[in-house]
# Entry
Amino acid sequence: MSDKPYLTGRTYLFKISKGDDLLAALEDFCVENQIKCGLVSGIGATISCNYGFYDQKKKTYIKHKYDGAAEILSLAGNVSLRDGRPMVHAHIMIETAEGKVSGGHLMGGTKVFASELFIQELVGEEKSRKLDKATGLFLWTNVKN
# Structure
């Protein structure tokens, strides 16, 4: 395993079209641009949002869905490889029209109203994910403990 730092590669500022699936579109963008490792952040709004909380005892996600307009207060995550394909692991925080704030692990099916997104490619050792039996999560396999 390398102790070498990552270098910054290409930087992308872009949007995803209204109605598109946020997670799928992020991953498709990474595939199209051959981004194998990087950082993701964004703001915007959703038409509907799917997110989850990981139940550590049951090793499964408790899924939450908010149907309605919401602001994306924060979207933060990373890009690495799972089964040789770019995977985006991100968390999202939203605010509803009632002023309630909620969030968790970004899940497929989150529909974009508007988005302003940032991906910073990292150049160096690729990070790959594998099922970790102790947690039940797909975690990086090539990092120091």
